[in-house]
Design a protein that fits this description.
Largest sheet: 4 strands, antiparallel
Low-confidence stretches: 1-31
Number of helices: 2
Number of strands: 30
Shape: globular
Helix content: under 10%
Strand order of the largest sheet: 3-2-1-30
Distance between the termini: 26 Å
Mean pLDDT: 92
Length: about 350
Amino acid sequence: MKKIILSIFAMSLFVVSCSDDDDSITPSEPLGAYEDGIIVSGEGSFSLPSSVSFISEDLMTSENQIYFNANNETTGGYLQSIGFNDDKAYIVVQDGTIKVVNRYTFEKLATISTGLSLPRYIAFEDNTAYVSDWGDPNDTTDDYIAVIDLTSNSVISTISVSEGPEQVLEESDKLYVSHNGGFNVNNVISVINTSDYTLETITVNDVPDELFIDESGDLLVLSSGANQSWLTPPVETEAAITRIDLSDNSIISTLEFSAGQHPSLMAYEDGMAYYILNNEVYGLTDNATSLPTSSLFGTTAGYAYGLSVDDNQLFVTDAGGFAANSTLLVYDLASGTETNTFSVAVGASKIYFN
């Protein structure tokens, strides 16, 4: 689902009513009180619009459709991600727009559309935003990073990059961009100097996506590995978690998964990387020299589609069949106990802490 790009016909379906994503709602606080809580973004589906949900910090109450409630309009076709910068949130939608909202009220302040084609993720440095963009997904040579001036909310430059840019992470005047390959397969991390836009690449295992800076200041990369069973003959390569020394971009370690294992979700907190494999949650410490052989605990998610950790709790979204609201599952990390569930946006894939 994450790589599905809307055709003109499919995008027309987003005029449907938001009522299908509005069931099981318990308004948390008066409209606009979205500070100190959890934000969940949902991609939507071909027949249901994307949307944003909120859960209070104490996990007592929730509210769906918070963008619609604040603006009387949907977020549009396939909400890919949200970025937070100061008191604003930037909602990145694959229809070629970024909606700028107040992060605490979700009232829309501006829309950025000129200069974007198929945006994916956003990162910030001072008064500048950097957005990964696939361009035409059928063209392997037109992918780029859009450079956005946050005062004018306009694209002021582009940086050409390798195919299928995904996550963008800013650290010490450099951008780190994972390239999963879009409709194809890629295996590089771009390193872009923000002062002059010079670029170098680091080769990792196929289909890198999730990026985190660990406690030692190293870059942690989850690569899912190629799993193209539809090709003749099928193409499959090993997934891996790679650790990179950012002082010289050298690879410290590459821990490969067994053949047939293709984890796609990873979260990180306090020296531990968490990932899901066959509905089991695993933990990898920063000093580990091999992948763990046993899981921490299992999840009840039918289709784990989003993962995050915060304050000794692990959050998993279960997208189900993308035909109705997703479920946010909350686990206590110490015991592995499921402590809460919430009905959230259709195709819920990203979890943020506001």
